[in-house]
């Protein structure tokens, strides 16, 4: 039986999708490029992403209707395969990032293979419950994390130095901001997952608003983290730390007693990223093995999950190689695949419109 | 007649044959012979012969199940003294002689046997092919008293008993509405246990009632001795550690849930009544939350939610932090813990396991021991475990504090079935914490959360209204808003008539009468 989600849940899913993994290491490369002007970058990328999504969605609910029906054309299948491949790369990248972070921050003596298997088993359980349950746990955890992120500037008030975030305009400011925007765009372009999930939204009203709200929330939270980390640590530390946000939350010092809140915040963040990974795994499984979303067989979820976990380990020799892929390779792959997906969405929409006019 | 004779010849078990649908004959002797055969070796089944209007008659009942005084006064005495010789028939006896308040006719042996075993009295008269069933049940049963498991400071003090009729009457006293329906069912081939399914016709979704009845009708079992049998036979996911059906001993709890569109099942022979469908958050609600002023309710609810998480996670968090993430502990506290653990030969995880298992053993022993010595032994055990174990260097003082606080936290959960689930789940969390630290705790928590979000109770999501999120229903979950603001019933149960009170009920000095 097909499962459905509400526009509000869709918004939270999209917000989580673009925010949860981006906060791990992305601020480092962005700050390396555009130093203390980095907090401006989300404002530059946000309208681009929103416009692209609105162009893809178009007017009315024609695209949504074409995904809601069970009759799939070959173009639909092409779209699903493309987005499946896209999500495989996203999944491997994020899973390895999560494993590396866990290995560094929580379990330094545990082999990463053990962490990978453990995480995969948990993700397998979550993904096999279906989109409805994945959405429910995402909503609960994302709201908790968002409340924490919103309170971060207040918790770090005594550590913030506004001089760190004063914009410095130089001859290469525009160039640097453009480069950072180019770096950020593929990460935020992951919000294209929205088109894949359209087939699970029964409501016709409020879908467009949901995507704008979701993208806005994701961007805002990322902006808040970037500006707070630069304000607290300075661009020097942020650009050189692998996990700048983790270093930032280690500076929280409310009283002598409440100065070790970093791991507590990490505990709040980990389930949010696991929700994103679970959603990605679910979408990959559906894209390749169950494009209509109607059947409930999860037989192939187990080998798929374990295969992707193995790939996440063996494809990257160490964390440095993974970071290189994340900062450099992923940018190009991401942009190319996202534009390809957008073109496919546009073709699907035009074809659906032509069919409905006939 | 020949068929009846053949049946009498064979040695039949006391089980009422499903296929036997014999009718009562006009020959009283054959009828009695058949019934005596069914009840042979049952000395509590009494066959009292009388003569009424020169006709032989028998009064048959199970000694101990009937109200002997009423039968003697309103049936036997009437039959012996007031029956005219002529124009005697069952209708005349029923309408003009017997003054027991409930009299029905039966003409099949199968139903007659059931009536006798249910505690009714049977009157068989010679030359009549019908029997009269006199409803004068009695016997001794427990009186209505305050439930042991759900005592309150403020609120009604009556609790259900083992009698089905008493229990249905207790609910009827709360809800004086003709919309309250009481549907009967009988389950259990040997025990023939009576069930009463209660619901408010204008509130409970018809599909829910149909589903409940369908699941009960599907039950094929020899005996039902407690509502727990029914619970396990009809719940959605038996493998889940979380209960999906609530049980209570309080009629006011049942009435309140019926008024929110739920269905209740009363089982004869047990004071524990089932309420369904249920959500996770109902198990942390006590009936007293609705009787005290809302400030107290808010405080108690928030306290219970916090203690629920502590009951589940505190030992695991201590094990994880003490074993893997000592940097999280403030320095002075860390030195104190390190000093107390210096001489302990076991790792934190083993220490926690020892203490938790000892505590569980002590708690279980406290339930089973006779009340006279139970309290003394519990105190002694606590002292032995607490003091002596610390002084012997088996466990550390912080661990004793953690385990004690966890135990107290689990006692604050109002519903025992959820409390015991949380107690069980503590152990896997501790194992995960002992092996993987906080990472293991996080993974365990997310698996639990996923399970809770996946679970359903008769179609209703178990974690609602938190997930799926329904803002309007959250006013009775972590807090309880004042009664003048609780104008709507929970949306996941009642779709037809969601409004339960008028608007603008908040009193104020200048309020005009509407």
UniProtKB/TrEMBL annotation, chain A:
Its main location: membrane. It is a multi-pass membrane protein. GO terms for biological process: spore germination. The keyword Transmembrane helix applies. It is found in: Membrane. One of its GO terms (cellular component) is membrane. Keywords: Germination, Membrane, Transmembrane, Transmembrane helix, Transport. It comes from the Bacteria. The chain crosses the membrane at residues 12-33, 39-57, 78-99, 105-126, 138-157, 184-203, 210-233, 263-284, 296-316, 328-348. InterPro entries: Spore_GerAB. Belongs to the amino acid-polyamine-organocation (APC) superfamily. Spore germination protein (SGP) (TC 2.A.3.9) family. PANTHER family: SPORE GERMINATION PROTEIN A2 (PTHR34975:SF2). This is GerAB/ArcD/ProY family transporter. It comes from Salinibacillus xinjiangensis.
TrEMBL record, chain B:
Pfam families: GerA. Residues 505-514 have a biased composition (Polar residues). InterPro entries: Spore_Ger, UPF0353/GerABKA_families. Residues 495-514 are annotated as: Disordered. GO terms for biological process: spore germination. It is a multi-pass membrane protein. GO terms for cellular component: plasma membrane. The chain crosses the membrane at residues 302-324, 344-362, 369-390, 396-418, 430-452. This is Spore germination protein. It is found in: Cell membrane; Membrane. It comes from Salinibacillus xinjiangensis. Keywords: Membrane, Transmembrane, Transmembrane helix. Belongs to the GerABKA family.
């Amino acid at each position: 039986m097909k499962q459905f989600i509400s526009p509000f849940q869709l918004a939270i899913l999209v917000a989580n999708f673009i925010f949860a993994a981006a906060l791990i290491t992305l601020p480092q490369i962005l700050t390396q490029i555009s130093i203390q002007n980095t907090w401006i970058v989300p404002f530059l990328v946000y309208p681009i992403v929103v416009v692209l999504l609105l162009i893809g969605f178009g007017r009315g609910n024609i695209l949504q209707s074409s995904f809601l029906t069970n009759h799939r054309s070959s173009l639909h299948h092409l779209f699903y395969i493309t987005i499946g491949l896209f999500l495989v790369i996203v999944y491997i990248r994020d899973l390895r990032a999560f494993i590396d972070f866990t290995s560094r921050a929580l379990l330094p003596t545990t082999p990463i293979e053990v962490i990978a298997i453990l995480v995969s088993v948990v993700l397998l359980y979550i993904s096999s419950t279906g989109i409805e349950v994945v959405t429910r746990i995402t909503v609960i955890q994302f709201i908790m994390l968002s409340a924490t992120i919103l309170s971060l500037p207040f918790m770090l008030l005594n550590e913030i130095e506004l001089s760190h975030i004063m914009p410095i305009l130089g001859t290469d400011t525009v160039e640097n901001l453009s480069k950072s925007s180019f770096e950020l765009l593929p990460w935020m372009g992951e919000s294209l997952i929205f088109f894949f999930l359209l087939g699970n939204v029964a409501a016709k009203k409020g879908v467009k608003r949901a995507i704008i709200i979701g993208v806005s929330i994701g961007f805002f939270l990322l902006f808040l983290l970037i500006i707070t980390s630069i304000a607290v640590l300075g661009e020097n530390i942020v650009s050189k730390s692998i996990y700048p946000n983790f270093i930032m939350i280690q500076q929280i010092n409310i009283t002598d007693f409440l100065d070790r809140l970093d791991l507590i915040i990490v505990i709040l963040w980990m389930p949010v990223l696991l929700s994103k990974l679970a959603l990605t795994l679910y979408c990959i499984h559906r894209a390749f093995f169950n494009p209509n979303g109607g059947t409930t067989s999860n037989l192939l979820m187990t080998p798929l999950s374990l295969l992707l976990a193995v790939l996440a380990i063996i494809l990257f020799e160490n964390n440095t190689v993974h970071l290189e892929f994340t900062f450099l390779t992923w940018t190009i792959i991401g942009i190319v695949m996202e534009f390809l997906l957008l073109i496919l969405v546009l073709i699907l929409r035009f074809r659906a419109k032509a069919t409905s006019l006939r | 007649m020949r068929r009846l004779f053949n049946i009498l010849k064979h040695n039949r078990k006391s089980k009422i044959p499903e296929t036997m649908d014999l009718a009562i004959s006009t020959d009283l002797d054959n009828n009695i012979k058949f019934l005596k055969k069914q009840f042979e070796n049952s000395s509590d089944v009494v066959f009292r012969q009388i003569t009424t209007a020169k006709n032989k008659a028998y009064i048959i009942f199970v000694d101990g199940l009937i109200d002997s005084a009423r039968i003697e006064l309103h049936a036997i005495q009437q039959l012996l003294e007031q029956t005219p010789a002529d124009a005697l028939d069952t209708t005349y006896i029923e309408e003009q002689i017997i003054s027991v308040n409930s009299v029905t006719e039966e003409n099949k042996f199968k139903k007659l046997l059931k009536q006798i075993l249910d505690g009714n009295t049977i009157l068989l008269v010679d030359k009549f092919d019908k029997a009269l069933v006199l409803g004068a049940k009695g016997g001794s049963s427990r009186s209505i008293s305050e439930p042991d498991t759900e005592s309150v400071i403020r609120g009604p003090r009556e609790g259900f008993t083992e009698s089905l009729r008493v229990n249905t009457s207790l609910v009827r006293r709360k809800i004086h509405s003709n919309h309250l329906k009481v549907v009967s069912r009988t389950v259990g081939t040997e025990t023939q246990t009576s069930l009463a399914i209660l619901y408010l016709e204008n509130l409970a979704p018809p599909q829910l009632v149909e589903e409940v009845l369908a699941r009960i009708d599907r039950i094929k079992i020899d005996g039902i001795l407690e509502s727990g049998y029914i619970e396990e036979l009809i719940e959605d996911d038996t493998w889940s550690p979380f209960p999906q059906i609530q049980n209570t001993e309080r009629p006011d709890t049942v009435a309140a849930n019926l008024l929110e569109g739920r269905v209740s099942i009363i089982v004869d022979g047990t004071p524990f009544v089932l309420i369904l469908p249920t959500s996770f958050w109902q198990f942390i609600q006590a009936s007293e939350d609705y009787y005290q002023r809302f400030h107290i309710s808010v405080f108690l609810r928030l306290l219970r939610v916090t203690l629920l998480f502590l009951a589940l996670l505190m030992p695991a968090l201590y094990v994880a932090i003490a074993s893997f993430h000592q940097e999280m502990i403030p320095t002075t506290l860390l030195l104190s813990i390190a000093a107390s653990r210096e001489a302990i030969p076991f790792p934190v995880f083993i220490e926690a396991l020892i203490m938790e298992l000892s505590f569980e053993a002590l708690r279980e022993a406290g339930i089973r021991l006779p009340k006279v010595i139970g309290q003394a032994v519990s105190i002694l055990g606590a002292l032995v475990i607490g003091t002596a174990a610390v002084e012997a260097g088996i466990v550390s003082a912080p661990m004793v504090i953690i385990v004690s606080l966890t135990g107290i936290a689990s006692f604050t959960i109002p519903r025992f079935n959820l409390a015991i689930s949380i107690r069980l789940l503590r152990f896997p969390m501790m194992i995960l914490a002992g092996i993987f630290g906080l990472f293991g705790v996080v993974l365990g928590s997310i698996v639990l959360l996923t399970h809770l979000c996946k679970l359903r109770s008769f179609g209703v999501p178990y974690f609602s209204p938190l997930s799926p999120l329904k803002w309007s229903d959250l006013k009775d979950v972590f807090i309880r808003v004042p009664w003048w603001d609780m104008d709507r019933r929970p949306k996941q149960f009642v779709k037809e008539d969601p409004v339960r009170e008028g608007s603008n009920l908040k009193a104020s000095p200048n309020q005009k009468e509407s």
